[in-house]
Amino acid sequence: MFLADDFPIDFTLQPGVGAPVWRGNAPSGEDLKDFAAATHLAAGRLCAMWGSDERQRGGGYRLHCVFGLNRGHAWLSLDLSADDPVYPDLAGIFPAANRMQRATRDMVGIASDGGDQRPWLRHGAWPADWYPLRHDAVHEVGMGVGFPNLPSDYDFVQVGGEGAHEIPVGPIHAGIIEPGHFRFSVVGERVLRLEQRLGYQHKGVEKLFIGADIERGARLVGRISGDSTCAYAWAYADAVEAACGIEASSRALLLRALMLERERVANHLGDLGALGNDAAFAFGLTQFLRLKEDWLRLNAEVFGHRFMMDRIVPGGVAVNVEPAALAAIVEQCAVIGSEVKKLRTLYDEHAGLQDRFVTTGTIDAALARELSLTGIGARATGMILDGRAHRHDYTPPPPWAALGVRPVTDERGDVAARVAVRFGEISESLRLLREIAVGMPSGELRVAIAPRAGGSGLGVVEGWRGEVLVAVRFGDDGKLARVHPHDPSWQAWPALEHAVMKDIVPDFPLINKSFNLSYSGADL
Amino acid sequence: MIPLLKHIFRTGILTETVALAEGGPQREIDRLHDEILRILGRALTIREVDAGSCNGCELEIHALNNPYYNLEGRGIKFVASPRHADMLLVTGPVTKNMENALRIAYDCTPDPKLVVAVGDCGCDGGVFGENYASCGAIANVVGVDLRIPGCPPTPLALMQGILAAVSKRSP
Ligand code: SF4
NADH:ubiquinone oxidoreductase 30kDa subunit domain: which residues (chain A) (predicted)? Predict the structure, then answer.
């Protein structure tokens, strides 16, 4: 159906108004591997991987993979036995599988049959044979009780040769930024290799979902990555609604789109300022932060929260937007639009900036595809990949289909391209915001939602950084049994490792900022 | 260069223009600036440490340096090393994986140091609380002088909190 008719997998289309998702079970590990290989051949992507403990439901464990294909997403599950939960290593087909497989082992205790077996999210805070997401994984919580928090070693790949040395950076970085560790192998000032070690932001979010109700789940999901709170809240709402068999009204969907695009613009404004600043153009930072502050203040006025946390909820939205507020939004779009246009000319014509941006931190489309990259990074290599936009064989879900979103791309693959994509996306979002505000229909804000025992669903949303996925399954008690949120940073962190190779160490902050990846979103 | 200068000229100095346009909040910002300077009588250096946040609190701490709040313009500076800092501004919950790094940063900050816990998470663990991977509140790991609740706290709340922390310390 997706790739060929002779796959021994039956797919069924998930109900609801969210992004198109087909669900299926792989009869065996080999079938899963074949499907992955065929997806790779068809230039598809590995979008997410996680595990679940099914022993209470009479099974063993289950591995879940989401693949991105032209027509939509395929969510494929594989049952694993309770005593030997092992599945075929997919990292040889999709390099993006590497960290997801390691995290799945750390969290659920199911492992790939080969490849990299170093721990990923587990540092020294819990023992190697204790798996937090198993239903029988209980331990005492509190300072001084429970597991001792031990220092942990990590087996970084060593680079040898004359003059090669290492620069360790982090977990605490020099700026106001999330923690993570970067190990640079350099000769002189040139970067030979960067290896990241993340997981410092791991705060047990996935375990907190277990046993939570829909509302508590919504509060948690909106705090997985604060800068993407709308994207996560929407993906979660889509998943819960698909699981419970309800649909949000068109008004609610458009209000969600309004918030998502405002989130995109806010982040792009901040990033464009910071990118100017990292290239010694403090003027850019000041100007863009001023625009961002105006933007956030209107958010506070209209939505009651500067980042619109907890405003997108399962069933619809938790805030009404009056016509006067819509008019204020339209007016602000015009002001910000003309300001950004002027600033873009300044950025484009500033020789010092362009000198730092152009040919720095380059990745090409082939690599982006190989790494299953999405979002700004992918579109900056020329890939037309945007869940809101039509493409060959793909119809975006409402409300996007009717809005006719124009994806913004740039072929250069460098910092300059990622800057240009942000500029282009701001003007496209401003156009969408005006269109949404002007054409807002009446309708219900929020429909009642009751959990469906045993129901499950997957939500996919094109956040400002890239594709955000949230998978949800309810237990027989109607409480959440498993929620897996997936940040696009999983795929983009390895792309950053490639992008800095052969550039010089002092360019790292700029290249890093041009991706602006989430630590918390991927560390969970 | 010419268009750049033109743009700078057109924009003007925002910390003042807004005062005219908005009155309320900007007057509060100015008052806070004056208070901080009066109490402190010198520059204040802050080392921000993210010990496990969702990055939401960081967005608002970043905003402190935008031209409206202009913290740096008033001599309150974010520094790269805890060794250069008077104050640690910490967001959390403190993850177990950051517990040690936070302790080291605390030990590296010269006495007398001020520690401010930022956000609901920093204050009491927030939605994450304490669990196998989270130590919860900052105060569970290092001594805290002042808490700034909010999810995330607004830039104004952050300024008020920083002021409250320095005035608590000064005689
Ligand atoms: S207080 Fe809120 S914004 Fe700050 S880290 Fe916690 S969840 Fe994020």
Answer: 41-137
* End-of-domain residue from the set A132, A154, A184: A132
Residue of chain A nearest B48, judged by CA positions: A176
Does B18 lie at the interface with A, CB-CB under 8 angstroms?
A: no
Q: pLDDT category, A2, cuts 50, 70, 90?
A: low
ipTM: 0.93
pLDDT per residue over A185-233, tens digit each? 998 889 989 999 999 999 999 999 999 999 999 999 999 999 999 999 9
CA distance A136 to A82: 13
Q: Quick check: B21 pLDDT over 70?
A: no
Domain check: are A209 and A128 in the same one? no
Residue A184 placed within a domain: no
By C-alpha distance, the chain B residue nearest A291 is: B66
Contact (CB, 8 A) for A279 and A312: no
Classify each residue of A369-381 as buried b or exposed e, where b means 16 or more C-beta atoms within 10 Å of its C-beta: bbbbbbbbbbbbb
State chain A's mean pLDDT as an integer: 94
Residue nearest to atom 7 of ligand 1 (CA): A223
Q: How far apart are CA A143 and CA A123, in angstroms?
A: 18
**Whether residue A425 is found in the same domain as residue A333:** yes
Distance between first and last Cα of chain A: 34
* Whether the predicted pLDDT of B156 surpasses 50: yes
pLDDT at A412 over 90: yes
Domain shared by A360 and A493, yes or no: yes
B153 lines ligand 1 (CB under 6 A): no
Chain A: give the shortest CA distance to residue B115, in Å: 16
- Nearest to residue A36, comparing CAs of A14, A6, A60, A69? A69
Quick one: B85 exposed, middle or buried, by C-beta within 10 A (0-12, 13-18, 19+)? buried
Q: How far is the CA of A232 from the centre of ligand 1 (A)?
A: 15
Q: What is the pLDDT of residue B17?
A: 41
Residues 44-63 of B with CB under 8 A from A: 48-63
Task: State the residue for tokens 């590990």.
Answer: A29
Does residue A430 belong to any structural domain of this protein? Answer: yes
Pocket test for ligand 1, best of B57, B98, B147 (most atoms within 8 A of CB): B57
Does A265 score more than 80 pLDDT?
Answer: yes
Looking at the domain assignment, is residue A418 inside a domain? yes
Range of the domain at A322: 205-515
CA-to-CA dists, residue B25 to A204, A242, B72, B157, B158, angstroms: 38, 43, 18, 11, 14
**Any A CB within 8 A of B149 CB:** no
Within a 10 A sphere around the Cβ of A392, how many other Cβ atoms?
Answer: 7
Q: Are strands A86-87 and A111-112 parallel, antiparallel or unpaired?
A: parallel
**Structural domains present in chain B:** 2-168 (3.40.50.12280)
pLDDT 10s digits, B34-75: 777 777 777 889 999 999 999 999 999 999 999 999 888 878
Would you say residue B23 has pLDDT above 60? no
Please give the tally of structural domains in chain A.
Answer: 2
- B59 Cβ closer than 6 Å to some ligand 1 atom: no
Q: Of A108, A132, A156, which one is at a domain's C-terminal end?
A: A132
- Are residues A108 and A252 located together in one domain of the fold? no
Q: Is the CB of A203 inside 8 Å of chain B's CB atoms?
A: yes
Interface of A with B in 160-179 (CB under 8 A): 171-172, 174-179
Tally of CA atoms within 13 A in the half-sphere of A473 that contains its CB: 16
CATH of the domain at A4: 3.30.460.80
Beta strand segments in A273-361, E? 312-313, 316-317
CB contact under 8 A, B130 and A309: no
Find the range with the poorest average confidence among A129-133, A170-174, A246-250, A467-471: A170-174
